Protein 1
Amino acid sequence: MHKPALAGALVLLLACPVPGRAATTGVVFQISTTQIASWKVAMHNVHNLEATGVNGHNIEIVVLGPAIRILLKGSPVATDLTRLHASGVTIDACRATVRRAGFAPGAVLPFVRYVRSGIAEVVRREREGWAYIRP
C-alpha cells in the first residue's frame, strides 16, 4: 500500500468511530529515527490528517532516541516543524534523551515541549485511547 493511501485509510478510521467504542481523541506519532524520509512521511501524514477536515483530534509528535537531533534549531526539518507547531500540533522531546545528548541551552526549537520519558508519553496516550502511528 502506498503511503498516501495509508494516510487516507488512517483518516477514514478516525472519521468513523466503532459502535460501542469511544471515539479516538487524538493521534500520537512516535519518531525515533534520524532518517529524513521518515520525518517527511510523518509530516505528510499530519498534513493529510489536518487537510481532510477531521476535526476534534489532537495531534502530538513524540521524539525520542537518535531522532532528538532533528529538534535542533538548524535541523533540515526545523521549518516544517515550526509550521506544524503553528497549526496546533504538539511536539514533544524526551527529556532523558535531551539530557543524554548534552545539547547546549537554547539549541532545541523554542516551542518543543519536554516530557519526562518519550516512550512513557506514547504509552500514556495509547491508554487514553489515542491512535498510535510510527511512520
Protein 2
Amino acid sequence: MNNTYSKENRSVYLLTVHIVLVTKYRRKVITNDLLSRLQRIFTDTCSKWDCRLVEFNGETDHVHLLVEFNPKVQLSKFIANLKTVSSRLIRKDYSEHLTKFYGQKSVFWTGSYFVATCGGVTIEQLKQYVEKQQSPAL
C-alpha cells in the first residue's frame, strides 16, 4: 500500500477497505484464468468509481480485494456494482465453464459480502491519540 493521501477541494483522505466476495453456493469455480480476468474487471471498475485496486487475490470459491476509495463513493453501491459487472462479464466469457456448476442459472456471486475498513494504525493507537488531545480551557 502506498499510504499516499488523496486530496480534493476540501478534503484529504486515505480510505482503504478489505472486501471478500464468495461464489454462489461456495462452488469452487474460480480458475487461475478466471481469477486473472476478475482482476482486470475489478481494476477497470474501480477506476470508473475513482477508486484504486491496491491488492487482489483469491481461491477457488472466493476473492479478496483491497481497495482505496473516495469518500464520495457510497460503499454499498460500489460493492454492488463490482459484483454486478464482474458477474455479467464472467458469465459471458466463461458460460460453458459455469454451466457445469450452475446449470442455466445466471448466478456467480452469493448475495452477501464481507467488508472491513483498514488503516495504518490500531484502534488502541487512535484511542491514545484522542485521549492525549488538549481540552480547551473553560
